[in-house]
Amino acid sequence: MIGTDRTEQVVVQLDGVRKEFGGATALDGVSLRIHAGEAVAVMGPSGCGKSTLLNMVAGLDRPTAGTATVCGADLGALTETGLALFRRRHIGMIFQFFNLLDDLPAMDNVALAAELAGATTRQSRRRALELLDELGVAHRRDAYPAALSGGERQRVAVARALMNRPALLLADEPTGALDSSSGDQVMDLLTDLHGSGQTLLIVTHDPRLAARCASRMVEMADGRVVRERVLEGAA
Fold it and tell me: How far apart are CA 114 and CA 119, in angstroms?
């Protein structure tokens, strides 16, 4: 991709992806492209398949049919070990309920992501502190998750997701467990990340989040993409 216009790089390409769980169809022939630098919000009612789509892009689910290519890798062709390495190197994930390790302070929660990818403890802690500082929670680096507010926990979670400089940042209802003030802060953070060129895929029920943080909206129903539109005035 060297020498290619960054906006033309395809980070995510789903082609006719179908996913079945037992007798139920979660994704029914979904095709989707996401280019580098885009921020795409996926919306739809509960059970429409949007979380399964996110898991498919993350390599947490494998397609029953069709292909899922992310950062140039055919995820369906990778082993479980290969998928784990792929996620560490290319994907950052933000969850609704933070998924921080309760027995580690904020600094170690963030640094662990880089250590698992092979960085030294010194390198990991240096970058972790830089990210916590950029996100405004460096003063809470020694606090355990239980002592952090919801907004602080999500900022720590975002720092962890960014540790390995991921090509793609996935966010699953990132404001769903936050009060309105903390939610607004996380929206501002996602908007800033998009503005800096980070590629984002966000699953959300919140139209405000989509309108503020995304450049394109994808609407789903019954396991299918039913509508796509560019958002006016997007960051």
Answer: 5
Specify which residues 172 forms β-bridges with. Answer: 203
* pTM recorded for the entire structure: 0.90
CATH of the domain at 37: 3.40.50.300
Residue 200: alpha-carbon gap to chain centroid = 6
Structural domain including 166 reads: 9-230
Rounded CA separation 95/16 (Å): 26
Phi, psi dihedral angles at 14 (to 5 degrees): -105, 130
Q: 4 in a domain, yes or no? A: no
Q: Is residue 202 part of a domain?
A: yes
Based on the number of CB atoms within 10 Å of its own CB, is 56 exposed (0-12), middle (13-18) or buried (19 or more)?
buried
How many domains does the chain divide into?
1
Question: How far is it, in rounded angstroms, from Cα 135 to Cα 189?
Answer: 8
Q: What is the pLDDT along the chain (235 residues), one digit of tens a residue?
A: 233 344 579 999 999 999 999 889 999 999 999 999 999 999 999 899 999 999 999 999 999 999 999 999 999 999 999 999 999 899 999 988 889 999 999 999 999 999 988 889 999 999 999 999 999 999 999 999 999 999 999 999 999 999 999 999 999 999 888 888 888 988 999 999 999 999 999 999 889 999 999 999 999 999 999 999 998 755 4
Residue 1: inside a domain, yes or no?
A: no
